[in-house]
Amino acid sequence: MWDPTLVDGVVPIPTADAEEMAGRLAREEGLCTGTSSPRSSRSPAQTTAQS
User: Fold this and answer.
1) What is the torsional sign of CA 23, 27, 29, 31?
2) What pTM was estimated for this model as a whole?
3) Whole-angstrom Cα distance, residue 30 to residue 51?
């Protein structure tokens, strides 16, 4: 269950970016995912880059 009191922040990832990353994961890693998995992997990278 989502509990907003347990997170420091929310990083919005556009659907087009998530779809692009899902394609990369399929081509490069052989991972067939939906768009939530790429969002989970991209948001930490994006947050780190902004720091």
Assistant:
1) positive
2) 0.63
3) 31
Burial 1-10 (b: 16+ CB within 10 A, else e): eeeeeeeeee
Predicted local confidence at residue 30, as pLDDT: 94
Q: Indicate the DSSP class of residue 35.
A: S
**pLDDT by residue (tens digit) across 23-46?**
998 999 999 988 888 777 766 666
Q: Hey, what long-range contacts does 27-30 have (CB within 8 A, 24 or more apart)? A: none
- Please name which of 42, 33, 36, 45 lies closest in space to residue 2, comparing C-alpha atoms: 36
